[in-house]
């Protein structure tokens, strides 16, 4: 959806470390804050409208906000029924300016649902009008489907205008939702989607978390596993071969993004860290597993406190700007006690 122009290959090909354009040591990113929410708020995910405005979900309440990319001002687009839903998670654009969002039921401390169901709602932003400060006309919100089989749905991506994919982190399953037919199926259930892939007693119950399609592969983070995996996938046949691990060294990976030139940015929520990895698609490379490098934040820093998801800007002339949501470390307070206001922040990725 976001076409990035030809990359600065001449500059970046200087020192190749196993990948076409990987610098020996990626530089530290400068993090800028666009918007800060008063704590406690947990910004969980985001999607960018064609007009550049940012939609961000809250995990601590079932709400979706729009953030102005120029001023950082925010407006509440939709509050779902808080007596039924505990929060909103993945959000993705299907057809132009039509967004799909997960509203999740109440859950316990193991992120297992207590009652109710995960619902996918459709938010048509075409009817959303503001005078800059206030909402003049609401977005049109309709229920798409309840995913009764799911435990807690987390990441979402649009396969195309007809199908969306959603990740059940606790059960380690990706469901495919047929939007026209109003049906869903368990499309991929891979061992590398399970929290228990590496160990019988993982540090977190979250396996598959963020999901994205890239060059005919379905990619996903495994939070407990600390890696990104992939499998060839299409919407009609599901997984078309064996999965493999694409990126290592991303402990507690949350959501992520892959730029058009195969550079991945991985948000590591509970270690407050953003990492970069250079996927190797060179012919004959065998598309090996690559290591990620930290480019911003740290376990004890508030700079990217609870960084949860990433999406590229769609504003003219800002194709390398990567927006990031943060939870303010509400999921795991820094040094045990410190939380901060959650944010929509950004970095310039043109040097990566
Ligand atoms: C960070 O900002 C400094 C000062 O403006 C600049 O020199 C440096 O190139 C920036 N780093 C990145 C990775 O963009
Ligand atoms: C679901 O469980 C929560 C927490 O125990 C409770 O507050 C809520 O009333 C329950 N909702 C329904 C619909 O049963
Ligand atoms: C938008 O929806 C909210 C919540 O239902 C309602 O309170 C508000 O009046 C609506 N705004 C307009 C302009 O219709
Ligand atoms: C999947 O892995 C198995 C076991 O290693 C192998 O026999 C099979 O050929 C692989 N399939 C594909 C499509 O690569
Ligand atoms: C956490 O503790 C480390 C080590 O004492 C310290 O350097 C860091 O500033 C602390 N972080 C916060 C957010 O207080």
From TrEMBL:
Keyword presence, Signal: yes
Keywords: Signal
Keyword Signal carried by entry: yes
First and last residue of the signal peptide: 1-18
The protein, known as: Six-bladed beta-propeller-like protein
């Amino acid at each position: 959806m976001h076409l990035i122009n030809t990359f600065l290959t001449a500059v970046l090909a200087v020192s190749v470390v196993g990948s076409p354009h990987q610098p020996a040591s990626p530089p530290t990113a400068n993090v800028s804050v666009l918007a800060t929410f008063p704590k406690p708020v947990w910004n969980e995910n985001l999607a960018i409208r064609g007009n550049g405005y940012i939609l961000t979900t809250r995990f601590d309440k079932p709400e979706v906000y729009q953030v102005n990319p120029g001023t950082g001002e925010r407006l509440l687009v939709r509050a779902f029924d808080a007596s039924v839903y505990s929060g909103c998670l993945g959000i993705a654009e299907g057809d132009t300016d039509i967004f799909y969002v997960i509203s999740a039921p109440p859950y316990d401390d193991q992120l297992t649902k207590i009652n109710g169901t995960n619902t996918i709602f459709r938010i048509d932003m075409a009817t959303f009008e503001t005078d800059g400060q206030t909402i003049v006309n609401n977005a049109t919100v309709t229920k798409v489907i309840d995913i009764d089989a799911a435990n807690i749905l987390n990441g979402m991506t649009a396969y195309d205008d007809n199908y969306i994919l959603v990740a059940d982190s606790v059960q380690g399953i990706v469901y495919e939702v047929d939007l026209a037919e109003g049906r869903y199926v368990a499309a991929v259930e891979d061992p590398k989607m399970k929290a228990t892939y590496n160990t019988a007693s993982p540090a977190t119950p979250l396996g598959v978390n963020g999901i994205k399609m890239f060059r005919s592969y379905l990619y996903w983070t495994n939070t407990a596993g600390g890696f990104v995996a992939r499998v060839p996938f299409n919407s009609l046949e599901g997984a078309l071969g064996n999965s493999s691990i694409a990126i290592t060294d991303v402990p507690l990976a949350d959501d992520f993004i892959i730029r058009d030139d195969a550079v991945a940015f991985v948000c590591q929520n509970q270690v407050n860290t953003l990492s970069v990895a250079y996927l190797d698609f060179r012919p004959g490379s065998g598309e090996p597993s690559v290591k990620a490098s930290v480019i911003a934040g740290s376990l004890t820093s508030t700079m990217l406190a609870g960084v949860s998801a990433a999406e590229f800007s769609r504003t003219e002339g800002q194709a390398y700007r990567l927006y990031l949501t943060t939870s303010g470390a509400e999921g795991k307070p820094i040094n045990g006690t410190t939380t901060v206001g959650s944010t929509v922040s950004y970095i310039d990725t043109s040097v990566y």
